[in-house]
Design goal:
This protein has strands at residues 4-7, 10-13, 18-24, 34-39, 46-51, 57-59, 67-72, 77-82, 91-97, 101-102, 106-111. It is mainly beta. Strands 2, 4, 5, 6, 9, 10 and 11 form a 7-stranded mixed beta sheet that branches. Strands 1-3-8-7 form a 4-stranded antiparallel beta sheet, with no helix packed on it. Strand 4 (34-39) and strand 5 form a beta hairpin.
Length: 112
Amino acid sequence: QVQLVESGGGLVQNGGSLKLSCTASVGIFGDSSMAWFRQAPGKQRELVASITSSSSATYAESVNGRFTISRDNAKNTVTLQMNSLKTEDTAVYYCFSTKGYWGRGTQVTVSS
């Protein structure tokens, strides 16, 4: 069964850090680009960061300089290191494969 499984969400104070991980089942990682999206209550899902199979990364302006996306092709894993977190980063974070698969999401809550 094709799966994307996220982990690493939680509660952190304003200015803190969290690292999200997403592990993909065999067959959907490989040569696909991977991305992290997020959706806050009452808002549309938005792209946070993406990374190509050759590890070229792009970021939303709101997280550029604070978040870092990376991938380990040998482990079928993509990570999102989030530093200097702000309350407005509070959302459910989803892993996405450009082969068309979504994870179930992991909650990130940043308290003031």
